[in-house]
Design a protein that fits this description.
The complex is a heterodimer of chains A (153) and B (86).
Chain A: H1 3-13, H2 19-30, E1 56-63, H3 65-68, E2 74-81, H4 82-92, H5 97-109, H6 121-131, E3 135-139, E4 146-152
Antiparallel strand pairs in A: 1-2, 1-4, 3-4
Chain B: E1 5-11, E2 16-23, H1 27-33, H2 35-48, H3 53-65, E3 71-76, E4 79-85
Antiparallel strand pairs in B: 1-2, 1-4, 3-4
Helix pairs in contact in B: 2-3
Classes of the chains: A alpha+beta (153), B alpha+beta (86).
């Protein structure tokens, strides 16, 4: 069972919400809007938030002409399915074991002390799952402002 | 399921291309025709990365299937590019 759905049913069982509120919350889960997961609220009593599983990673970049040297605002809007990130992680599992050491050394040389050989598929799954909580907002106030926003929806 | 259509839109200050719906499912025909060659390439790749060809096929199939829903929109210098995989 979906974790959010279970959470709603548990709240219903505990008497924290009534059947109508539970129904409304489940309906809200099923038609989740395209907003960052962290900002999503399904109308819990007391303004609580129900976390839904993110489907996409969204990257928005806006750069002013002073920054890029181009006419008008430059914008990039990329939506990547979370499933694609998971598939990419599985693709990394095809890296031969003997290449792991070389990769570890190369990463270490470039200041990333990460041992790929120590990372197991379940860790990577966990990493992707935690990306759902990620929201990055960069807003440069200098001349030639650039805005970067990364979030899951 | 792998993407069935790619929507491509290109717009420049001088001209504007109507949104193109590219039927990706037609690539299946090409894939069937080229399947012996594809199989050989995958077999060679499987030997190179020391895995089984089935695992390799599974990983690539998974990758292709997850492309659905990808959406890229870029606006720069009055030009606009849109690529959507449906």
């Amino acid at each position: 069972m979906n974790e959010n759905r279970r959470q709603i049913l548990e709240m219903l069982a505990a008497g924290k919400i009534n059947a109508n509120e539970a129904e409304r919350l489940i309906a809200a889960l099923e038609s989740a809007p395209a907003t960052p997961v962290a900002e999503r609220s399904a109308g819990l009593p007391g303004g609580g938030t129900v976390k839904t599983r993110a489907k996409y990673l969204r990257v928005l970049v806006e750069a002013e002409p002073e920054m890029t040297g181009l006419k008008g605002t430059t914008s990039v809007n990329v939506r990547v399915p979370m499933q694609l990130l998971r598939a990419g992680v599985r693709l990394a599992s095809l890296i031969p074991a003997q290449a792991h050491q070389q990769l570890d050394e190369a990463l270490s040389r470039h200041g990333v002390p990460l041992a790929l050989s120590q990372i197991k598929p379940e860790n990577l799954e966990e990493l992707i799952d935690h990306l759902e909580d990620l929201t990055v907002d960069v807003d440069s106030k200098d001349e030639g402002a650039t805005k970067v926003r990364v979030f899951c929806e | 399921m792998i993407p069935n259509f790619a929507v491509i839109g290109i717009q420049t200050p001088e001209w504007h291309l109507p949104r193109l719906w590219v039927p990706l499912f037609l690539l299946w025909i090409l894939l069937v025709v080229l399947s012996p060659l594809v199989f050989l390439v995958l077999a060679a790749a499987a030997i190179a990365v020391k895995t089984t060809i089935w695992r390799l096929i599974a990983v690539f199939w998974n990758l292709l299937s997850s492309l659905r829903g990808t959406d890229v929109q870029v606006v720069a210098d009055g030009n606009r590019l849109l690529v959507k995989l449906l």
